[in-house]
What we know:
By secondary structure, the protein is of the alpha+beta class. The protein has helices spanning 9-17, 24-38, 100-111, 140-146, 163-171, 185-192, and strands at 57-68, 71-76, 83-87, 90-91, 115-123, 129-135, 138-139, 151-152. It has 2 domains: 9-38, no CATH class; 57-192, CATH 2.40.50.90. It has 6 helices and 8 strands. Helix 1 (9-17) packs across helix 2 and helix 4 packs parallel to helix 5. The longest helix is centred in the first third of the chain and has 15 residues, at 24-38.
Amino acid sequence: MGHLPKLSIHGRAMAHAGLWLIGPWVALVAGSVALAEVGPPPLQPVAQSTNLGTPASQWVGWVTKVVDGDTLHVQPAQGGASQKLRIKGIDAPEVCQAWGMQSREALARLVWGQRVTVQLNDVDDHGRWLAQVFVNGEDVGARLVAQGHAWSYQFRRDPGPYAFQQQQAAINRLGLFGQPQAMRPREFRQRHGPCP
């Protein structure tokens, strides 16, 4: 086989997705070779001033640990240390509060051991990456909120990116939205302190 040229980000994405207009087996092999040759950019912290609407870094990895309903560890496919991530745009109950364990179990069922695509956006106050996570092309945050395992992350008057999913889950009283004692994690920590 001839040498494959280095591809742009768009070209790598198309090659990886097998969207070249050639046979599917050739596209799959070529996409894998092109990705292995070029690879995703190295992991580096994103400055706090980064425009969150602009992709900072995207990579693929395997979920190795689920901490709670919105925090997980992902081992990058290109190697290196496992990365602790917080799913951007959602707020799941703490494991010690009502619906906390169910939220954690829902995330684990969805992603543990799975190959995921990670879109890094920023770093939170605890040093965790804030990232959108996708499994089989599906937005994990959107699914967790839609199933009633997390809230759409509100900031001031902004209802968050998954307000519609939250509204539908609340109307149907799914998951934590059917629990009378459910409260947002921030309120829970203010009343009871952090989980032991």
